């Protein structure tokens, strides 16, 4: 499925809708270049899970845990991972196969440990269609 958004509010709203539809044990892989709106999407996703308060990318901590009113939410940013073994050190399996929801930014860097069943969300810009335009592809794997 491909969805087009034309401003940050629409990208946030799409994230929120997917967060509202998320089921326990789900893993979402979020792909996109720097500045494509991954954080805005994630903030909406967290809101859909009932997370209150600020949500930001855990770039230096790798994972940030939130308690949503619907279920726990683990937000990964693996941009700075140098070796997949670093994920073992933080106990990624407990998150990936737990009772909450995981959203992993830059998931393409750890493909070898991703669960077989996951949702891949790719956000792309197209400046010819406007500065805030985003093409968002959602695929179940």
Provide a brief overview of the structure.
This protein is an alpha/beta fold. The protein has a single domain (2-140), classed as P-loop containing nucleotide triphosphate hydrolases (Rossmann fold, 3-Layer(aba) Sandwich), CATH 3.40.50. Helix content is 25%, strand content 28%.
Can you give a write-up of this model?
By secondary structure, this protein is an alpha/beta fold. Helix content is 25%, strand content 28%. It has a single domain, classed as Rossmann fold. Strands 1-7-6-2-5-4-3 form a 7-stranded mixed β-sheet.
Largest sheet: 7 strands, mixed
Basic shape = globular
Proportion of residues in β-strands? 25-35%
Count of discrete structural domains? 1
Number of strands: 7
Count of helical regions: 4
Which sequence of strands runs across the widest sheet?
Answer: 1-7-6-2-5-4-3
Oligomer: single chain
Unreliable stretches (pLDDT < 50, length at least 5) are none
Helix content: 10-25%
SS-based class = alpha/beta
Output the helix-strand order: EHEHEEHHEEE
The CATH architecture designation is: 3-Layer(aba) Sandwich
What's the CATH topology label?
A: Rossmann fold
Query: Would you state the CATH class?
Result: Alpha Beta
So, the CATH homologous superfamily? P-loop containing nucleotide triphosphate hydrolases
């Amino acid at each position: 499925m491909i969805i087009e958004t034309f401003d940050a509010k629409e990208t946030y709203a799409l994230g929120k809708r997917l967060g509202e539809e998320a089921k326990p044990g789900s893993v979402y892989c979020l792909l996109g270049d720097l500045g494509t709106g991954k954080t805005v999407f994630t903030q909406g996703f967290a809101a859909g899970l009932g997370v209150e308060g600020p949500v930001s990318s855990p770039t230096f901590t790798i994972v940030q845990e939130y308690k949503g009113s619907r279920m726990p939410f683990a937000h990964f940013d693996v941009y700075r991972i140098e070796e997949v073994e670093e994920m073992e050190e933080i106990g990624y399996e407990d998150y990936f196969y737990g009772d909450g929801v995981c959203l992993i930014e830059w998931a393409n860097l750890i493909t070898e440990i991703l669960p077989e069943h996951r949702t891949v969300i790719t956000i792309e810009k197209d400046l010819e269609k406007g500065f805030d335009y985003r093409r968002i592809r959602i695929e179940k794997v």
